[in-house]
Specification:
The protein is of the alpha/beta class. It folds into 2 domains: about 10-140 and about 275-330, 4-Layer Sandwich (Metallo-beta-lactamase, Chain A), CATH 3.60.15; about 145-270, Rossmann fold. It is built from 9 helices and 18 strands. It has helices at about 60-70, 145-160, 175-185, 195-205, 235-245, 260-265, 280-290, 300-310, 325-330; strands at about 10, 15-20, 25, 35-40, 55, 75, 80-85, 95-100, 105, 130-135, 165-170, 190, 215, 225-230, 250-255, 270, 295-300, 315-320. It is globular, with a radius of gyration of 21 Å.
Length: about 325
Amino acid sequence: MTDDTDTGVTLRDGVEIALSDGTRVVADAATPDGDVAVYSHAHGDHLYDDSPGEAVCSPTTAALAGVRRDDPVAAVSHPRVELVDAGHVAGSRAVVVEDPDGTTYCYTGDVSTRDRLSLDGFEPPDADVLVVEATYGTPEYVFPPQAELERRIVDFLEDTTDRPVLLFGYALGRAQELQLLAERAGRSVVVSEAIADLSAVIASHHDVSFPGTRYDDLDDLGPGDAAVLPSGVAGSDWVDRLCDRTDALAVGFSGWAVDDSFLYRGGYDETFVLSDHCDFRELCDVVAAVDPERVYTTHGFTDELAAHLTSEGYDARSLVADQHTLADFG
């Protein structure tokens, strides 16, 4: 491993890993300027604004980026970079980087260790330095087992077939899960154009199909119908008017639903915990499985998770923009 004062990890535009031979690997940057551009998945906060032309990513992520961005990216490989299934959304990958000096780095991006519907959970690799997400990096965010969460959702959808439902989740990831759960509950599924486009890309790259047709007019919703919509439109005036006209229930899905305030912030009638991320306990389990010499936390409750990991005996720091040595944290 590198010396005790500098691991070569920096948070700038994306997470940069500087290797001992001068190679700069840059992960999830809006405008990458390193030698190797890497993208963990196709969520907007991890994707480019300006395409680097080619990047180390999965073919699914490249195809999804082609839907979400005006300029495409070509998926390529690199001899020092290995991609590991991250279990977050279709095509998501953690990144394992081998330095010529023998140091191994793992950047998780967003990650989930749960097997969920069409996705297999993340299996943590060995690494000397771990950069781990901290979205749900505080102890109050501990989720029930996945099978229990899915059962609760399906039971609700079966018990409310006398009314249409509007199901709100991220267009990439959550929305595909909701399509499958609504089908399991016997609902007739319609989806927004954005969700339909993303689902079609995923289906073309994986052995999975998603129910649901693109809707023409949501005013036609009736009992037993389920419309899957992007979470960003929840609570909008047109959604409120639609619920009034069709007697539809607005239902939100997120790990943030652990907190009752999520229901009121989104203007939902009902909420359920359903997440594409590790909960707090699972994040701690990831760190224990990797057993790194150093941990950096990023994206979320970074300080809180780093403090907890330090109390557990790890050399852990929250990753701060443009700081990368232990002296910088002093």
